[in-house]
């Protein structure tokens, strides 16, 4: 099982930017698809962005397309989420996840989750 630790959350004004990072505990992270999810109170966790093992393919939720960018540095066993043009509705706890493929990761089919980092966007 991969241990994932998120960082980079915080409070930002609408229109601002944040960059989240997720560090994995194992070198084999490079053989895992990775992604970001978010959750607000009373709602289910939702897929935000995902990336394949090599970084050659990515996927995004419609709500963040054109504003968020996922990337990874396998040498550092780290995946990033650059969030620009943030909106109050982006406020949530953001979770990093790793899985066997981007296809299964998109539907949350994994046991490898980080502890989450809070992102708050003020209006």
Please provide a brief summary of the model.
This protein is mainly β and about 120 residues long.
How would you describe this protein?
This protein is mainly beta and 123 residues long. The chain has 1 helix and 11 strands. Strands 2, 4, 5, 6, 9, 10 and 11 form a 7-stranded mixed beta sheet that branches. Strands 1-3-8-7 form a 4-stranded antiparallel beta sheet, with no helix packed on it. Strand 7 and strand 8 form a beta hairpin. The protein is globular and about 40 Å long. The model has no long low-confidence stretch (mean pLDDT 95).
List keywords for this structure.
single chain, 123 residues, mainly beta, seven-stranded mixed beta sheet, 4% helix
Topology, element by element:
Elements lengths: L3 E4 L2 E4 L4 E7 L8 E7 L6 E6 L6 E3 L7 E6 L4 E6 L8 E8 L2 H5 L5 E2 L3 E6 L1
Parallel strand pairs: 2-11
Antiparallel strand pairs: 1-3, 3-8, 4-5, 4-9, 5-6, 7-8, 9-10, 9-11
Mean pLDDT: 95
Strand element count: 11
The residue ranges in which pLDDT falls below 50 over 5 or more consecutive positions are: none
Radius of gyration equals: 13 Å
Kindly state the percentage of residues in helix: under 10%
The ordered string of helix (H) and strand (E) elements is: EEEEEEEEEHEE
- Helical element count? 1
Helix/strand class: mainly beta
Termini separation: 39 Å
What spatial form do the alpha-carbon principal axes imply? globular
Outline the biggest β-sheet: 7 strands, mixed
Residue fraction in strands: over 45%
């Amino acid at each position: 099982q991969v241990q994932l630790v998120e960082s980079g959350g915080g409070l930002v004004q609408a229109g601002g930017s944040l960059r989240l990072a997720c560090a994995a505990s194992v070198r084999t992270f490079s053989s895992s698809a990775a992604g970001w999810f978010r959750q607000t109170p009373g709602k289910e966790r939702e897929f935000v962005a995902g990336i394949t093992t090599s970084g050659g393919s990515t996927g995004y939720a419609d709500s963040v397309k054109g504003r968020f960018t996922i990337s990874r540095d396998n040498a550092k066993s780290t995946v990033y989420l650059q969030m620009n043009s943030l909106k109050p509705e982006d406020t949530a706890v953001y979770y990093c996840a790793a899985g066997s493929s981007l296809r299964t990761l998109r539907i949350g089919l994994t046991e490898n989750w980080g502890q989450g980092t809070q992102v708050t966007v003020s209006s």
